[in-house]
Every structure is written in structure tokens, then in C-alpha cells.
Amino acid sequence: QHLAKAGEAEDEAQCPVVCAELIQVDAEDLGPSLVMIVQGRPILIYRSFPQKGTASAPAFPYQFCIVEHDFLGMVQATPHDLRPYQAVSAHNDAKGRPVGVVVVPPHAGIPALWLAGRRNQLFIHPLPGDRHRGFAALSAPCCGSGFFSLLEPGSGQPCVAQVSGHATVEGLLEGQTFDLQQPIPCASKLLQRTPHVMATKPDEGLLGLAVSELVIEAPDVAAGPNVDEDPLSEDW
Question: Taken in order 130, 24, 122, 39, is the CA torsion positive or negative?
Fold first, then answer.
């Protein structure tokens, strides 16, 4: 019995798979997505598509295809000293429909990933920072429909609890946040002007837009001062 337990512990220590979980990212998805966290690999994400079998040879209802993304930080260790560890946190809207998933790596140094979907298309965005250790949905007056997360400061310090809301910027309508169901997170803003030229400075996080505004002059309004208002009216 002792030998069996020792063998199980050794196999567990050598197992490179940290997580393998099926999740539904969006209510319109045709099938689940597979999230895999494997030591020595980046976070792996697979999308499924339906597969039909026959009456004589029934098949698993889905096939999977890996999704390429740009966040290639390698998983270096398994979280044996950080249990319990929840790698995948699914989020639902007020009606209980899936609206996104957060995938948290087993150690600091790799950004957590936000998965969002629309029309059976998957979008992957990194969360700010690379020290998230836990993530969960939170609905509270302090943040509305926000999130509760744990951050690992490093240098042996204890984790820090953090409450976050959806990102927003000045000038958006009340309650409007960034749309994550896009290749790049974006927010629509009504200009009420005609745009002409746009310039960006990515290193400084700046974006400039030159606009013009159409002004219609009423025909019954004089274009300039009348005789009584003009200080040079005596010369008329």
C-alpha cells in the first residue's frame, strides 16, 4: 500500500497536464471549447465543431481544432504548492447565458487570458499584468457587474485581493464599456462631427482625430455687425 501511494505521488509530480477543461464561451457557440494548460507549452485553446456519426459507428459529437494566438508565455511549473487552483473561470450574464471565460496560468509571469465569442468566432485578449492567481465574477454595488481577483506581488509576499470593473473611458455613455467580442477591444463613441485624419502614438498610448463641424447660418441673421454696432459706422 505504501509503495502504491509513493508511485501515485511520483506519477502526479511528473504529470505535465495542469488543466484540461471543456467550457462554453458564448451562447451562440456550436460546441464547447477546450482549454489545456500543459507544462512547457503556452496556454492551449481548441475550438470544436460538430461531427456526425452513423448508427453502426457512433462517434464523439465534436472534433477539435487548435486556435492560434499571440500570447505564447510558457507554463513553467504545475501548481502543486498552490492548491486549490482554479484555472478556468466562466462568466454568465443576468439571464445565465455564458458571456466569457478567464483562463488563469498556474504561476506569475504569464498574463491571464479573457476568451470571448460572437457568432461562433473566438476572441482572445490578455488581462493587464502577469500576476493574476485567481479570478471570479462579482456582482456588487462597488463595481456593478465586475470581478474579484487575486494578485501575486512576488518576493514571497501574500496575495492581494482586488475588485475590478469593466474598463471604460471618459466621454462614453453611462453604463457603456469596452466590447470584448471583437478582435481588438473597442468602444463606440458618437462624434457628431465629420472625421478627416487620424494619427496614433502607440508607445505613448495616444490617438488623435481631426474633425470638422458643419455650421448652417440662418438667412435672416446678418453675417456681420450692423451700422449701430460697428465702431467705424461713422465712416460708412
Answer: positive
Output the pLDDT for position 6: 47
Residue 188: all three cell numbers together: 463606440
Rg of the Cα atoms in the chain? 27
Q: Which three cell numbers stand for residue 70?
A: 499571440
Return the C-alpha cell found at 95: 439571464
Confirm if 141 and 110 have CB atoms less than 8 A apart: no
Cell 439571464, residue? 95
Position 77: which residue type? A
Residues in Cβ contact with 69 at an 8 Å cutoff, skipping those fewer than 6 apart: 45, 113, 124
CB 21 within 8 A of CB 88: yes
The pTM of the full predicted model, rounded to 2 decimals, is 0.69
Residues 6+ apart with CB under 8 A from 195: 209, 210, 211
The pLDDT value recorded for residue 168 is 66
User: Which element (helix H / strand E) includes 15?
Assistant: none
Distance CA 87, CA 102 (A): 8
